[in-house]
User: What shape does this take?
Amino acid sequence: MVTSAADFAAFSAMHPLLNVATAAARAAGNHIIRNFERADQLEVKQKGRNDFVSEVDQRAEALIVEVIREKYPDHAILAEEGGADGEHEVRWIIDPLDGTTNFLHQLPHFAVSIAAEVRGELAHGVVYNPFSQELFAASKGAGATLDGRKIRVSKHAHTEGALLGTGFPYRKGDDFPKILAALGEIMPLAAGIRRAGAASLDLAYVAAGRLDGFWEFNLAPWDVAAGMVIVKEAGGMSADIHGKGNPLNSGNIVAGNPKLCVELGGVLQRSLRSS
Ligand code: IPD
Ligand code: CA
Ligand code: CA
Assistant: This one.
């Protein structure tokens, strides 16, 4: 849900780290879009079973790192393709192209996801869809925005009747029975379940109230870091599906408005006990 245009002014004074994240996301997004027409012809390497990376992912990441390094040469970086680099109280967490499989199929639902953690706490996040040019952004304590306008999570408090996002596993070793048990619990309750293929956008959509909630197992920090800040600043909550620890590290995430997040988490835990 986007609130009034009057909110724009209040949110236009962006934190310098969020400014850099936005500039980096746009630079990477422009590169991704320039290559969209030929995405089905790119040379693709396989990182694992059904896990792909193209030269576009790699170049997008290099562009992001370049923009950050130009301003902040000493900051630490954790990026999907390049891994961890450096130690600093500010750590950037980067997914240069979230939704690579969609991109390679010219399915226009993918994003650039960039977060900045300050002294171990997620503080800034940007999720940019270069195809729609929608930019979701948030800084700790300053609210969440979509293209400069304030957004809020939906008010739908229950799994019953909710529109939910999720992700299905596709890698060797993924626990398929666990995922099917969760679907078995939730499907009869929910109004709908969507598997759109870019976790960062799923979370951004929760923040904007387009989805009431989201859950997925086995994600990486770069899939969720920016989205978690945006959900929180939009009045929502993210939690570990098992109810303990930080989903940034565990990768097992449930998100929504606080009531729905807690309820959906309970449903998921019930399904885990029965699987
Ligand atoms: C993937 C997407 C997808 C999720 C996968 C992620 P990638 O990221 O976020 O929605 O289900 O688990 O790995 O590989 O396209 O950056
Ligand atoms: Ca990803
Ligand atoms: Ca990626």
About this structure: The chain is about 35% helix and 25% strand. The longest strand covers residues 90-98.
